[in-house]
Amino acid sequence: MLDQTCIDAASSTKLVFVGPVGAGKTTAITSIADSPPVSTDMPLSGPTRGDKTSTTVALDFATVRIEGGHSVFLYGCPGQDHFEFMRPILLRGALGAVIVLDGSDPDVVTHCGYWARTVADFDAALPMVIGITRTEEVPEFDLITVRKAMRAQGITPPVFTFDARNPQQTTQLVRALLLMLE
Amino acid sequence: MRIDLRTAALTDPEDQKVRLAANLLGAVRIEAKLSPWDGTRCDVVVVNADDAYGRRVMELAQKRGIGLVAYAAQPIHFALSTQRHVAEGTAASLVSALRGVIDAARKPDSPARPGTSAPAPLPGHTSDVSALLELTHDSWRGRDIDADIAGRRISIRASRGRVTAATLSDMLAARDALGERAETHAFTAVAERHPGIGEISWSLDAFLVDGALRCRHQLPAFAGSTYALRDFPDLGSTRETLTPLRIANWLQQRPGCVKERAAKAGISADEVNACLWAFRASNLLVIDEPPAAATPPAAQAARVARPLLSKLAARFGLAW
Ligand SMILES: Nc1nc2c(ncn2[C@@H]2O[C@H](COP(=O)(O)OP(=O)(O)OP(=O)(O)O)[C@@H](O)[C@H]2O)c(=O)[nH]1
Ligand SMILES: [Mg+2]
After folding, report:
1. Domain A4-45+52-180 class?
2. Is this structure's pTM higher than 0.80?
């Protein structure tokens, strides 16, 4: 008898985007998916920032069709802490995780450590890449400190700066992840 | 006075003599930092000219005006007094050759033989190399500097992995001129945390990679045979997307065999060479040293069925 999970593993796979509120997960998924994600976004209460007017409350979901009628599913975890329970649910069975962080956040190093640890604690062998948005807005942005903090934790994923609105730059993150599996 | 002394293709006895000579130079207040030739700028290189690799390095040194001491069984006549031949001899005779080269480099040069009038580069001071190669030199690599490249001012902040400029046009012009000759006074080291020029802020790795690929036809061969990366370069925003990513990935996974793997994947040798120069300039590339901890080759494939992974890779522009 064929195991159902085998069939699924052979025909579909998923990538999970995690990171703090407002980092750019929904935007990144939108950049590379075939069609806009199905998102459980709610209008942001309180002050908004730039063109961000909503926040994801359960998950983002989108697909990228690949040759042979297969698909890769893209999931975005909500950034808010009270949706923490969603993370292992979404990470299970993933082929890799993209950690999206906001480079204009003064706490970006702390967030990076926290999210990398979250992914590594779920599965230490799960390939991950870190993508940092909005670095063009902060001339004092410091990539080396982020790398050092990662090394101190014994986690050394590629750390990229990128603009989540840019499909080519978002694709670079996915490629880096796929190359780890080559 | 400090000098950066390199060696290439020396026999063991020659190598020992150079080490001894480097110590002896201390007596005349010359502090020589000794390391193997890696293609980057230095003050003096000692080569074994009877060896093919040594001869190649000698030619490069002559071309770039680097001080040169060449071991060879047969005498070699050099046009410049910054270049000397030594036969097998004592460490003391090597010290005297080295001092001759160093002194000649400090003085405005006179041709060693009458009738020749080759321009006289001063090792360590003039720059007959491109801005990119200059940035790989120990004096600049990994440091925060303000730079003037093709008349455009940029701030390289290696301590933060960033480069800044006042305008986008300055940034683009500087990047595209990385292959042009650097002026001697083009770079100024600044203290860490010194604010950079302007508001336009880019990834330093991406800036160097795109600039290097643009001038890839002009770059000399990068020396060494085994390379590894300290960290994965920040390639999120490179204009040239695939090639540097693949090269970085190979360097990260299995140091050493990048050239062969690239050739198999149809990536040209000059693209690999350009990426090596760029990764070196951004202080990420380690040459001829066993890597501290190479990322274990991905025993990951089991996460996704192989055929599916290939299709997925193809969908994102990766063919393997
Ligand atoms: N200036 C700038 N804005 C960016 C960049 N990347 C993303 N953005 C913007 O940042 C905001 C990110 O918002 P979302 O994509 O909703 O963030 P999220 O991670 O899904 O947030 P939650 O769902 O609330 O957890 C959007 O308004 C993007 O347009 C960048 O590199 N530069
Ligand atoms: Mg969202």
Report:
1. alpha beta
2. no
